[in-house]
Predict the structure.
Amino acid sequence: MKKLKVLLVIGTRPEGIKLFPVYKELKKSPELFDPLVIATGQHEELASQIFKFFNFKPDLSFGVMQKNQTLSTLTLKLIPLLTNAFLGLEPDIVLVQGDTTSAFIASLAAYYAKVRLGHVEAGLRTHYKFNPYPEEMNRTLISQLAGFHFAPTEIAKQNLLREGIRKEDIFVTGNTIVDAAKGVLEHNITPNMDKLLPQGAEDQAIILVTAHRRENFGQPLKNICLALKQLTETSEKLLILLPIHLNPNVQSVFIELSDDERFPNIKTFPPLSYPEFLFYMTKAYLILTDSGGLVEEASLLGKPVLILREVTERPESVNAGIAQVIGTRTQDIYRQTLHLYSCRSDYNRMAQKKDLYG
């Protein structure tokens, strides 16, 4: 029997984390599958961390990362590279994950090369074209190009059905982040990962903060920054941990918090490895983020999440009462964070482990 050649395209760190469990399963059946990996290099430095940690090496790497490049520039680079790769490698199916530009352009290239396409994490929607931008349109268009739709939840499946995707082409699989996170939590978390915590941190409420989305560039990030300052000025019992994304639009705002003696309870540092990040999630009292993946991981750990966005494509967590969408206004971030710190009953209602994405 001919083996099925499966080509996985990965551009960013979250794609690597979420596609590794798929790659691992495919490798378990070498008589059935021949999995290959293309790394586009959209977020080269961050994605390379994941390849190294999970020990799976790309078969092709494009290295298209360029400082401050536009979406149009990235698209112009990837279309010929991916189309030629598909024509040359002749895969039986291409797998993409999520809603990045790499995933969308790989989907378009697969269509041009007349290669079957599978979409992992299909059906997530906010129903707002520019929020998130460009992810909402990326994933919506991928759905029109894909033949196999691996939806993580029933809500995602219903979104696809409303868009006219055939029921027989949709498979509710859960989210592969659950497989990845559980594996790391069981085998790769060690006590010495607490090296970034200052002395006395055990007596403080740790608030883990991340923000990197394109729609939050500019004033929204400045609002978040101001709220963090106000929070630590209000209470010395709050310790904010802020890993800063490598994007210059993020660094230019948050860099002022680095080693600022006026805010000793705000600790900034470069992006963490995946095991380190999960470790600090386990230590957190509360998580503030605009990341979708963190919302999913937090549900496994029982950590409340305040979502620094206007909308979310993961209503499962909001409906379950373990996450709230609070936007990026300084006063809203300050008020809601302080409320969950001071009101233990409301905090306890949110601090629940929920099996929403498995």
